User: Fold these one by one.
Assistant:
Number 1:
Amino acid sequence: MKNLVLAALLLIPTLGFCADTDTRTLRVFIFAGQSNMVGTHSRVVDIQRFPPFVGLDKPQVNVLFSYKLGREQMKTSDGWVALQPTTDSFGPELSFGRRLSQNIEAPIAIIKIASGGTTLGEDWNPDTPGGFKLYPLAIDHVRSALAELDRKHMAYRLEGFMWHQGENDMFHKDFRPAYAKNLTNFIASWRRDLKTPQLKFYIGELCTKTIWGMDNRDNMLAIRTAQKAVTAADPLTEYIPTSHDAVEIGGEGGLHYHYGTLGQLEHGVNYADSYLRAIGKRTAAERPLKIWPYAKGSPVKLFVLAGHRNMEGERAFSEELKTLKGHESLANDDPQIAFKYSVGGGFKTSSGWEPLGPAGPYDTFGPELSFAHTMHGKVPVNIAIAKFTHSGSQMNDWTPEGTAAKDMHLYDSFIDFVRGAIQDLKDKGHPVELAGIFYHVGENDMAFYSYRKDASKWLQSIVARSRQDLSLPSLKWHVSQQPPPDEKGLNNIDITTHIAALATTDPAFFHVKAFELPPQREKLVLDTAGIVTLGELLARNYIEHP
């Protein structure tokens, strides 16, 4: 396989450094970092479970790959090979390579050096490397890989450096406050040592959806703030949001520390799309609402859907709707319903109003599709749907007070989003009724003791303040809850009773127990069938309590 790939790419003439219009010169990307760059807890065998990524378990013969991975006993490619899983696991490089090869004509090569449980303050330190001395090791590996291209007379240029690291620095009392300084020095050292002063760096966000996003919020905030400061100060760096990406489902109620299979596949798409945007390539398909669906002056009921992982639709894929009996049509856009959205905390937003349809960032969708389908014919006026989610958030991020992590505070953005949707419809000449807010309680919150303890209190504060700020004292909230994780420690808190109690004292609060879902493979997250059922349950609750 190695010789086959090199032979194919040797047909490229040596042209030297070329402009972006050059489609012949090999684009070389460096991937580096710790365990979430290595791909810990991803599984090759599970790739086939996720329709947008089917086939990535096979070698990509059109993409070169050179790697050195691990710690005490590092696994190396021993030269260039076709891009492929290195063992039973993989990192973001697989989906990155395919995404790029589908969108640019130039050939692609990836050099990856990653090692779990390592720090920028020591292992990756360019000046005084310690521990596993990864900086000099990585430089040597990159130089060796490039030297092999030189020996083969292959034209190439270093195009980007993808970095995902910081989880271990956040636990070190000296490394945590020095992260911004250390990252700045790290970037400058690579540019100096590779003689590439214009090399662009893509800095991946530490994922707040993991358990660390809950029990180490302050530490993660410190690293996130440092990374944002570095990327804000250096125009050749970009901060890549990843907190909306999927996370492996584990024990302890389902929470985990790593992206796992699906998260790694999405992780790579994030880097690829950022690079493609940087070179002027469009990464999202247009979904225009070509004809406004409502008669001039006619009333519109606006339904607002909000929440976290399952309202966003983390593991619901539109491709699977085609085989879900009775729900095949949900995969098609419905131009009769105007749809506005902000998902992933603004990671993907609609272009104005779009037709209702699958619009998630990875060919995914949420309960909105089956919600609207169930409502069809049951509401005598026009309906529009606005959806606001962040699957990497926790419930305290939605409270009016927020937390110390101000960059995760969603309440003001959520209220502004609702106000904006109402005003948009009014500007088009429609009387607007906000029919209700349909909120699915935080899945992660249910799986972590201290958050589960405060969840109903947080929820009550969000409901009360939203009515005040939207000047709608009787605004209806339809709050759905899936079965909470059944764990000995967690079961000391009867969260279902706590949420139900809110409905007993508030006639405009409806508790939707989504406890009869189709059998689910994972804790916390719902699959395609589960998300469809959730949307139907929410719609039926509204029909019963309009």
Number 2:
Amino acid sequence: MRVSRLMLVTLRDAPAEAEVISHQLLLRGGYIKRVTSGIYAYMPLLLKVIKKITSIVQEELNAKGCLEMLLPQLHPAEIWKQSGRWDGYTAGEGIMFHLIDRQERELGLGPTHEEVITKIAGDILQSYKQLPINLYQIQTKFRDEIRPRFGLMRSREFIMKDAYSFHANEKSLKHTYLEMNDAYERIFKRCGVETVAVDADSGAIGGAESREFMVTADAGEDLILLSPDKKYAANQEKASSHPSRANILEKGKPKLIKTKGQSTIKDLCLEQNFLPDQVVKVIILLATFDNNIHQPILISIRGDQELNEVKLINVITKHLHRNVINLSTVSIKEFNKEGINNIPIGYIGPDLKDSYLDKSTKWEHSFIRFVDHTAANLKSFVCGANIVDHHTIFATWSSLGVLPKVVDIRKAIPGDSSLHDKTQKLIAKRGIEIGHIFQLGRKYSSSLNASFTNESGKQEPFWMGCYGIGVSRLAQASVEQNHDKDGIIWPLSIAPFEVIIVIANVKDDSQCKLANEMYFKLRDQGVDVLIDDRAERAGVKFKDADLIGIPWKVIAGRDSSSRKVELVNRTTKTSKSLDAAEAIKKLISEISTYKKSLLP
């Protein structure tokens, strides 16, 4: 390929819309072109990167016996309603683009494909003898992001690989889960990105167990907590840990104290000389379920800890066996709207009476109560007295006459002790999620009535797994991890070209002749090579070559008449003056050695 035919337009300055370095470099290097918010055109250079990543994914999954297919992007609403996910994905802050066709049928643009593939499998896979099977596709997905940002990191249209496995039993599912974990590690290694595998929350996809693969980078949206010995790693949404030990509050007879105007933990502790970990704070939230039931939730947590809403949603779902569509804190305005105008906000205790809810016309009239283990373990504490401007000191769970269901709903934080070893203090890193694998169990097969005949001749739902890789996100994550002040440094395996030959002066016949000779010889040897034949100044070409990040650069300059070229390694920036034939031999050797290093 010749740069003069590549439609390459580079930018010297980063566009104002680009917040992170990888987004800036992809725009500056002409890899992507913004069409509108969260929607990008993949220009020829990026499409080559995408195809190379895709090829690696296909090779590794095919080696595991997976079968590639292509599923529809338009999904009928009825199967999403049958699985119970339609309202959650389309109402309020739901992320599914949805529409009504000319026959008044509801359809959605697929953000994920569990429903469609499960329905197909239920129709085709009839017997345990056909199992296990693992089906995958690589295609465009659509998600109506509330705030698209960071380029391809969080866009509304993106390329994804998703796979779905079907099994006769849980043992088979777990075996495939580990096989896919192995395939993912190989895929990311071959793509030249360093990843951290972390325990993760299964989110809206659901399932018993899941693992995310993260590229560590300052621009990452996820917070990862890791132990220094690397034996524990989890997304903060999922992470569990041992918190710091609370300061002991002396025991005494529970009594009321006046705390006028001290409705926050900060003010209470400042005025009364308490410590936050001696206080139990109470939060009221409203859970909305897919059947439009509004359930007030009252949670108690140690005053120095933060609520992990993802954990709480999972606890509510497990406890009530209902899908939570929305979870929000309740404001005074919302209380008043329901006719509840005397709740002592800022002074609520864990024993707040259910009778406060009797006037509500839409909410359930009793609280579901949970207490985080950090608060449940306190032997004596301070809490709201359910009277404005008053707290209770020396309270105990027995004196309150209530101990809600004890659960883990706190955010693990850096400095906490790891569960596997209390001497290991968790550290924090930012991460970009590029892959996620799930053990779905029977969630979708049960709801969609997808079953097979087992060895006993009885019908039972499939056991299922789900495995995703953000292909376009992986491309940008690689840039986030591999760049310098001059531009992108692509790993050789996914670079749009392996070598770029720069003709310093296209008016010099010896430079043009040698450059073209090397171009054809390298191409004939199977090297993916680009030649910069533009009538531009040499400095412009050198800067563009560094910006777009081709791993090897050959400069045909003043010494071309003596068949000498300069060979530059983009990663190390080391350069050598070599005879053209020697440079070709060196390049072929280096590329071959790199590819062999990725073999099992």
